[in-house]
Amino acid sequence: MELYLDLHSQPCRSVYLLAKRTGIPFTFKSVDLSAGQQFGEDFGKVSVVRKVPAMKDGDFILTESVAILQYMVEKFPQLVPGHWYPSDLQRRALVNEFLSWQHTALRAHGSKVFWFRRMFPSVAVPKEKMDSALEDLKQTMDLFQSKFLKDSSFIAGEEVSLADLVAIVEIMQPVGTGLDVFEGQPALSAWRERVKKVIGEELFDEAHQSIMNVDCLAKTFQDNGMLEFLKPRINKMFT
Amino acid sequence: MALEIYLDLFSQPCRSVYIFAKKNNIPFEFKKISLLEGHQYGEDFGKINMMRKAPAIRDGDFCLAESVAIMQYLAEKFQTPAHWYPSDLQQRARVNEYLSWQHMAIRMHGSKIFWLRLLIPKIMGVEVPQDKMDAALEDLNGSLKLVEDKFLQDRPFIAGEQVSLADLVAIVEIMQPVGSGLDVFESRPRLAAWRERVRVAVGTELFDEAHKDILAAQEMVKNMDASKMQVFKPKILKLFL
User: What is the distance between the alpha carbons of residues A196 and A204, in angstroms, rounded to a whole number?
Assistant: First the structure.
């Protein structure tokens, strides 16, 4: 199995973490998003959508981290314990509910804050748009806690699942820009520690190393010419 | 207590859940809510779904939101025919891939076109600037191209030979811009042929019934009282303008 990954990307991290944590054998195929490798000819043969992560299992190619995670759980029952995607009807529904919701919520707002903070001032994000993005993130984080976490240890109950994995990698994205969303949030921090413990601190930190060191991203884009390519895309996010 | 499904058939994800439940003869109580009238913000509905969105279900004391999760739940609970959510590893992966991709692609772009063409002019009293409309249209065309070139290709349905949740979710989203008067099928014969296959697979009567409201949207919006819809102004300004 080949996994096409750039660990700057949240969905790449969730796929990477599940595979490493459960011992699923794979080859790490690096796709450097900051260099625009997803638009290259080689990667185009893997995915026309030009996004990561992507999985190649023999001849079978699959995109979308949620689908890849579900595939891995199903394909490797002997490696992946059942709690990752519970077979109990209601527990599974809670996992699915989160996995569906997060696209336009945690993921969308976390990504937006990441880009706005990381690219400023190379991309001149107006203050009210920045504030609005931060407010959206705050509201989505509040909803995450009050609806999805509630008083349980994890999203689906007392055991970690794909939902927590996807949640944590998305929440870490704005954290990588120096925005500590966990500050003043003891319940959320406690959940994070529980998830980290299950994944393994070392593995978790390793997976998040690139995102926690993104200070030079704007300069990288400036140096390699990607800035002009990215500018209109980021502008579009707030115009 | 019977299964309750909270629905507004103007909403794409409500239509997929409705069609799925009816097609599979799943017994349920249709709890009608009107999103444009703001029913989702009421106290009662808040107890069903604190995210204030439709569709939502209440099955005994179990509440669930998100159309994809709801259909996966119903498929499992009522043991619907396997083709809806195939057990074959790769076929299921194809369905899951589409169900994941569509949120930030066809759903987002189709919804935006509906708002820009119909709801915003009504609520704000102005036409949307041409450059915004063009940009939104370009996004929609890009998503439609991926539906055809990546998800369908030369297969009759997304997962292969039979209709699945993926086609159901796809069709209801694509019908949204159609409801605003934009016939996306006109210049896309392959897509139109797939639409007919899906329509036949779910049952033409059921399909047409589910889409009756959205296809009458232009007329309905024209007759709406814009002053009652001002609650949407901040959302519009933030998201679209």
Answer: 6
Cβ atoms of residues A137 and A175 within 8 Å: no
Residue in this structure with the two tokens 């998305």, named with its chain if needed: A170
Q: How far apart are CA B38 and CA B228, in angstroms?
A: 10
Cβ separation B96–A63 shorter than 8 A: no
B223 Cα to chain A: minimum distance (Å) = 31
- A100: which chain B residues are within 8 Å (Cβ-Cβ)? 66-69, 99, 103
Nearest CA to A116 among A37, A1, A231? A231
Task: Please give the interface size between A and B, counted as residue pairs whose CB atoms are below 8 Å apart.
Answer: 80
Residue pLDDT, tens place only, B3-19: 999 999 999 999 999 99
Given a contact cutoff of 8 angstroms between Cβ atoms, the answer to whether A86 and A95 are in contact is: yes
Is B51 in Cβ contact with A101 (below 8 Å)?
Answer: yes
To test the contact with chain B by mutation, choose from A45, A47, A66, A88 the residue with the greatest count of B C-beta atoms within 10 A, namely A66
Asked if the Cβ–Cβ distance from B100 to A103 is below 8 Å, we say yes
Please, are residues B32 and B17 in contact by the beta-carbon 8 Å criterion?
A: no
Ranges of chain A with pLDDT below 50: none
pLDDT in tens, B163-181: 999 999 999 999 999 999 9
Question: Tokens 């490797």 label which residue?
Answer: A76
Class of domain B89-240: mainly alpha
pLDDT tens across B123-170, in order? Answer: 999 899 999 999 999 999 999 999 999 999 999 999 999 999 999 999
Domain coordinates in residue numbering, chain B: 4-77, 89-240
Quote the minimal CA–CA distance from A63 to chain B in Å.
6
* pLDDT score at A159: 97
Determine the residue of chain B that is closest to A128 in CA distance. B238
H or E segment and range at residue B182: none
- Which domains are delineated in chain A? 2-80 (3.40.30.10), 84-214 (1.20.1050.10)
